[in-house]
Structure to design on (190 residues):
């Protein structure tokens, strides 16, 4: 399909990419599940050894020496409660920090969720906006910080036809990028 970059993708092109699976699907599981949290706090070597000691003490009838089981149980409960609270906070913060993306579609500019991005979408960047997927510059010039990828703290200037990886933009003067990869296949997590 031929794409006019000044207009962006049309509804038919977007539907085709969604149908063929060339759309963005972000990872919603940034934290452990409740089951994982409980399992990791209960099923530990320390707890296993203490259960063996408690069983041995019960067999010999030393009930007064088993007070430590109450302390260990309380420790497990507190650990699970703290981790569940932290999980909830992280999930709430991740909802607040989800950036939207300025895209050009059907000749109009609009803000879209990262989940709505498809391959070959035209992303519009201004100062401080984040590059959400691997892409290349169609128009304009941007200064990017690739320190997450390279460890280099100096900003890099990207010009027309230069590949940009998922990163934070330091400075952009109305740059236009074509997305050539979607988030789940981008280079950053690799």
């Amino acid at each position: 399909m031929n794409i006019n970059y000044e207009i962006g993708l049309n509804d038919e092109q977007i539907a085709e990419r969604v149908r063929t699976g060339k759309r963005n699907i972000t990872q919603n599981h940034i934290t452990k599940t409740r089951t994982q949290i409980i399992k990791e706090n209960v099923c530990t070597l320390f707890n296993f050894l203490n259960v063996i000691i408690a069983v041995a003490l019960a067999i010999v009838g030393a009930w007064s020496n088993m007070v430590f089981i109450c302390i260990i149980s309380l420790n497990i409960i507190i650990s699970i409660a703290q981790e569940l609270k932290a999980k909830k906070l992280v999930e709430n913060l991740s909802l607040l920090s989800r950036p939207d993306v300025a895209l050009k579609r059907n000749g109009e500019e609009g803000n879209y969720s990262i989940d709505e991005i498809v391959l070959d979408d035209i992303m519009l960047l201004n100062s401080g906006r984040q590059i959400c997927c691997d892409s290349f510059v169609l128009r304009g010039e941007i200064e990017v910080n690739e320190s997450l990828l390279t460890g280099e703290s100096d900003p890099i200037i990207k010009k027309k036809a230069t590949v940009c990886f998922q990163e934070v933009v330091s400075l952009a003067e109305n740059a236009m990028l074509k997305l050539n990869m979607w988030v789940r296949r981008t280079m950053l997590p690799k």
Summary: The domain at 1-190 is CATH 2.70.150.10 (Calcium-transporting ATPase, cytoplasmic transduction domain A). The mean pLDDT is 82. The first strand starts at residue 101 and ends at 105. The two ends are 30 Å apart (CA to CA).
